[in-house]
Design brief:
The chain is α+β, with helices and mostly antiparallel strands. The chain contains two helices and eight strands, in the order αβββαβββββ.
């Protein structure tokens, strides 16, 4: 019985941890899938943001999640999420969304960039010009 209770406790903890930063769908598109690896941005040596790139419904999105450990610091911040797109010799920012008020998560707008190389990017800005930034790898 004790082993069963212990196993249930471990499962409960794993489930709670798994629920963090698990974005499933972009606004307006119920069938998105993450492409590429998650990128992480650090502040004072700790991961504080996760950035992911998603595709679905004929579009790309950038998604940013702000970790609880940073939010617990009660530092007011604004967040930005956007997709960088490579067109010939130019790199252009697409679908940028900026939000103040210390959001927990933020999606960029969907971009029509599936035919070009893209990367997701996210940023936090706070205090006296402090910035935490993370970019996923390029996907072509």
């Amino acid at each position: 019985m004790r082993k069963l209770l212990c196993a249930m406790g471990v499962l409960a903890l794993a489930t709670v941890g798994a629920g963090t930063a698990q974005a499933e769908t972009a606004p307006g598109c119920a069938s998105t899938v993450q492409i590429g690896a998650t990128a992480y941005g650090q502040y004072q040596g700790q991961n504080v943001i996760s950035v992911k790139q998603f595709k679905g419904c004929g579009k790309n999105w950038s998604y940013i999640y702000v970790w609880q450990s940073f939010r617990d610091k009660h530092i007011a911040y604004s967040a930005s999420a956007f997709v960088n797109a490579q067109y010939d010799d130019a790199e252009l920012v697409q679908g940028e969304v900026d939000k103040s008020g210390s959001p927990v998560e933020l999606w960029s707008k969907g971009t029509d960039t599936l035919t070009v190389c893209t990367q997701a990017e996210g940023m936090l800005a706070f205090g006296n010009e402090n910035v935490v930034q993370a970019s996923t790898g390029w996907r072509c």
